Give the backbone structure.
Amino acid sequence: MEERGTPLVEMRNIHKWFGKVHAVNGVNFKIWPGEVVGLVGDNGAGKSTLIKILTGYHRADEGEIFFEGKKVRINSPRDARKLKIETVYQERALVDLIDIMRNVFLGREPTNRLGFLNKKLMKEKSLSILKDMGLSIKDPDVEVRFLSGGEKQGVAIARAIHFKAKLVILDEPTIALSVKEVKKVLDFVRKIKKQGVAVIFITHNLYHVYPIADRFYVMARGKIVKEFKKGEATIEELAEAIAAA
Amino acid sequence: MKSSAASKISYAFTKSLYCREFGIFLILILLSILFYFTSRDHSFVSQTNVETMLKIGPEIGIIAIGVTMLMIAGEFDLSVGSMLGFSALVMCWLYSKFNLNLPLAFFITLCVGAFMGALNGLITVKFGIPSFITTLGTMMWWRGMIFVISAGFPTIFRPEKTNPLFKFILVGSIGGIPLQFIWFVVFTVILTLLLNYHKFGNHVFATGGNKEAARAMGVNTDLTKIICFIIVGILSAFCGVMQSTRARGAYALQGTGAEMQAIAATVIGGTSLFGGSGTIIGTFLGSLVLEVISSGLLTSGVSGYWFNAVVGITVIAIVIMNIKLEQRRIHRGKGSRV
């Protein structure tokens, strides 16, 4: 990966305390456009907290965030979205009880001047978005709860891409998925990368992230303890680093 | 892919069973037929009785459809009866004691309703306490204020003395159809449009269905809830004025129990107690079911004291029916959400 030019996102010396717990301890993190970064580490290592700072759910107690070289303040999920940072959370991605197209356009509904939904446009666009992602869903007005786990991830990722995300954050996207479904999600990630979008792939399952990531950060106890490029370490060495941390 | 084929089949199945409202409609018809036979001289379907039902049913029904929207957003309102009573008192005082003109008094009363709703919403959202508790508190507070202000005495309200049109608009009738019912239909249409065809409705469903997902997508879930509380407040005030116009006064105990009836109508209509799903039309039918039971018992010579008991059983029976239907709908064992 060419690490020249300005990083898409740079987080500098980020700290976060929850009471006495130092959840994130002086983390420096960079990602370039079109790069897939695996953020790995055991449960409770601080991965999620770090990402929640980037996506506006938590505010860092110390540290700075730069987006395309400019210092930014991300105080809410809305701010993150304005910067074209999209997050696909495991449980929080979609609303199960409403249909796919309503989910795809949630918070960004195409409407007429009075705010009424343009359902025809929602339906057509949803169909083409799903098709682009290789999802064989013919009926975008089916409720999301009827989809499989992999399909749900696909819809959430497709939505992020459709809204021209520059950075997509996948929080444990393969957790609780079947082997077949995991493969699908990895295919989604490859598709995003091809479009020049950067991806942060958070997981504690190395075997899922290793084939697709260009670079890895290993986190433990709130710190980044190791940074590898793909060629620099085998999967065994990476696993060792996590276990040793 | 196999699972997507399965989801398609289950979806087709859902669609065929989709009309949960149809079941309630059927119950409404069956109850009406039952009461047709049990009522003395078939008085249940007499013009007077039908008109009475269409006059009184909407007084809870209009509130219930607001409560439905709020429950879809994941919140409760136990204070609707007290808000109804307090608004009625405000209206009657503004008119009878302060001699304000009717349109202005009505407008102020609706604003008071909006304020009470906003208060429920703000307290719930800003302090993060369950709306069950917030509105339990405001229920007692506003009922208390009614007694403090009125000392328990009724306030007479005769708007027709200065403005017969006002009375006609709220409680008159057109071609034998009471205006209360016409208002009920109008509000049902407006709220249905808002809930199912407007982006606000999408935010309501998302807020109640998965608040974190909605937030992550940039939906202001707090504001969405507050607006729902305000709508309930305004509708309660509207019903308070409507009821006082019919009953010619404001009474200290006016609206007592309305909260439970509104929730009953909503639940009968198939709205989930956990938020995220429900329909306005279901509640529309649900409140008609309540009114039919009440009036049917009365015309059948059953003591009015039976009303609550029968409603209680009906609510449980219909919710069980909804759960069974829902399980068949899902038929992938994900449990029900009624």
User: Anything to note?
Assistant: Residues 9-94+168-244 of chain A form a domain with the Rossmann fold fold (CATH 3.40.50.300). Chain A touches chain B at residues 55, 77-78, 81, 87, 89, 91-98, 102, 105-109, 111, 114-117, 119, 136-139, 142-143, 145-148, 151 (CB under 8 Å).
